Amino acid sequence: MRKAKAPPREETTISDLVEFDDNRLAAALFGEHSRHLALIEERLGVTLHGRGNRLLIEGTKSGISVAERVLHALYGRLKAGETLNAAEVDGALRVIAADAASGETAGEAAVIRTRKRVITARSAAQVEYIRKLAANNMVFALGPAGTGKTFLAVAMAVARLAEGSVDRLILSRPAVEAGERLGFLPGDLREKVDPYLRPLYDALYETMPAEEIAKRFERGEIEVAPLAYMRGRTLSNCFVILDEAQNTTPMQMKMFLTRFGENCHMVVAGDPSQTDLPSDRPSGLTHALSVLREVPGIAFTRFTQRDVVRHALVGAIVEAYEREEAKTGKGDAQ
């Protein structure tokens, strides 16, 4: 007769006292009205009691261990002069909790340093992505909006430009979303292209001072252009980012990828489920994934709704749409 398995034993609740050496930084760590502590409590199932520069943590041994790692990591950022907000706390929780589950600690060090700010990975997939951006010359980033695909690529490009390892930063995007041809839009080329490339500009201004951006544009060190203007070029000593790559055709994607030159770093970012192409036209991104998956030297990072690092509501919206698509058996509606 087989014996029934005993139910798993619950971990004993214990407590630990953590003390920080700067009351002012401790207050910033706890957050206004202890909002940061409340987020840690909710995510880890621990109880935090902060007073002055001291913090009492109550919970299971594993919960306290992760909480202490999160708190020390965030406190270290404050000591280094960085600012802290709820998104940074959420990101540290995601990364360190994933590290704890896998028995690793390297994720806590996945950062990109630019002159304007230090960008830290906010999910396990972002940790992987930052590592691949640092180690590979061609990277495909795939997944829904809000996962940091484009932002982290721009941040890495800005860091490379600042350190002098590349001479130029080139940002490109297929101009198809508005359903209008560039020739029919008012203004010069820059004014025609700007509406399509605005998300890339937003990322640029997040990582580089505005006056430096203006100077680098004037010197030709930063360039923005629609995908059509990549034809015939060889891109060398530069960092090139193609955003919204799902809106390319297979021929456009081949054209773009074959622009790759000496000391070129290329990132292709997009969401295969969000194409704005006519229904009878295949996506160049989806086609490239099937053609290039075995090619050495090309890295791929896949994000899901769990990696969305915008407002929590964005993740919930993406998840709801994915459930509906799975239920109906239909892809994304345009």
Short description:
The protein has 11 helices and 11 strands.
Structural notes for this entry:
This protein has helices spanning 23-30, 35-44, 61-79, 86-102, 124-135, 149-163, 189-207, 210-218, 250-257, 284-292, 312-328; strands at residues 14-19, 47-51, 54-59, 111-113, 118-120, 138-142, 168-173, 222-226, 238-242, 264-270, 298-302. It is α/β, with parallel strands linked by helices and 334 residues long. It has a six-stranded parallel β-sheet with strand order 8-7-9-10-6-11. A three-stranded antiparallel β-sheet has the order 1-3-2, covered by helices on one side. The longest helix has 19 residues, at 61-79. The chain is globular, with a radius of gyration of 23 Å. The mean pLDDT is 85.
Q: Rg from C-alpha positions?
A: 23 Å
Class by SSE composition: alpha/beta
Q: First CA to last CA: what distance?
A: 59 Å
Strands of the biggest beta sheet: in what spatial order? 8-7-9-10-6-11
Percent of residues in helical segments?
Answer: 40-55%
How does the SSE layout of this entry go?
Layout: E1 14-19, H1 23-30, H2 35-44, E2 47-51, E3 54-59, H3 61-79, H4 86-102, E4 111-113, E5 118-120, H5 124-135, E6 138-142, H6 149-163, E7 168-173, H7 189-207, H8 210-218, E8 222-226, E9 238-242, H9 250-257, E10 264-270, H10 284-292, E11 298-302, H11 312-328
Parallel strand pairs: 6-10, 6-11, 7-8, 7-9, 9-10
Antiparallel strand pairs: 1-3, 2-3, 4-5
Helix pairs in contact: 1-3, 2-4, 3-4, 5-6, 6-7, 9-10
